[in-house]
Predict the 3D structure of the following.
Amino acid sequence: MLGLIGKHLTIDMYGCIFKTLDDVDFVKETMLAAVKEGNMTLLNFTCHKFEPQGLTILALLAEGHMSVHTYPTMSYTAVDIFTIGEQSSPNQSIRVLKQSFKPEKIKTTNIKRGDVGSLSDMKPKIKLSTTPMRRVRDTSAKVFKFLSRSR
């Protein structure tokens, strides 16, 4: 077994509080708390505020990344957390995000990244068919034979 390379969580939060989703400082502090709670190391932070509302905030982590996209008019927040290694706990980060955004409904999807299973799983599974190549070769031979007779 080769093992798992990373954990990727996608979190959809529905029915969040409108005013918090357009507050850059609030979302930034929430993310910083989630990073800390998840035992992750912040390397860089960037955000963009859309007009008339909405945010995209990205945290570059030593272990991966965290992104938050807010849609205030829909009371919706989309979060991605990708981590590698065993020291981080992205599931702990979700608790902080839930406490802050207070969604009415949440959907979390866990994706195992890089889980290839065994070395044989990594080999490409390509089905080769010689029939098309044989047809090209046979057709070429027929054309060549035909052209040779014409002279």
Notes: The chain has one domain: 6-119.
